[in-house]
Amino acid sequence: MKEMKVNNEKVLIRKAKKSDAKSLIEYLNVIGGESDFLTFGRDQFGRSIEQEEEYIDNSLKKENALFIIAEVNGKVVGNLNFSGGTRQRNAHVGEFGVSILKAYWGNGIGEELIKYLIKWSKNSGLIRKINLRTRTDNTRGISLYKRLGFLEEGVLKRDFLINGEFYDSLQMGLIID
């Protein structure tokens, strides 16, 4: 658990729990409409509360998975989800996604969530590489990832299709040793 201040509000960063499922679904359905950089749009997240509870529960059971949220006054304002590989040969590597409510953009919450993941990965003794992919036009995100040590590894052509238009994505990685 970690705390930070944003606009005189206390932001709590903590592991997700099963009881967060309803507020996470509500949060995810909102942020889907706030940014085209996500893999889903407004109200397109597509999980029921029960499915989200099961997803959170499964994440908590895995040594190579992390699901954390940022909350202000009990309201979810950000989240990060990391999943490692499912087999022995790729359990040491995984990919994450991160999102923040638009009202909280530019306050360092996303950076703190990613730093939490990096620290957790280093302490895990299991995770040796963190991957991510983002649209190539997500300049703010790419700048943050580079600042935190992520390196560009390749471009995936036509990886996203949004409103009839294709977008490339950038594969990035951070080696943990």
Automatic annotation (TrEMBL):
SUPFAM superfamilies reported for this sequence: Acyl-CoA N-acyltransferases (Nat)
Key words of the record: Transferase
InterPro entries: Acyl_CoA_acyltransferase, GNAT_dom
GO molecular function: acyltransferase activity, transferring groups other than amino-acyl groups
Keyword Membrane assigned: no
Annotated ranges, domain N-acetyltransferase: 11-173
PANTHER family linked to this entry: GNAT-FAMILY ACETYLTRANSFERASE (PTHR43415:SF3), SPERMIDINE N(1)-ACETYLTRANSFERASE (PTHR43415)
Protein name, UniProt field: Acetyltransferase YpeA
Record organism: Clostridium homopropionicum DSM 5847
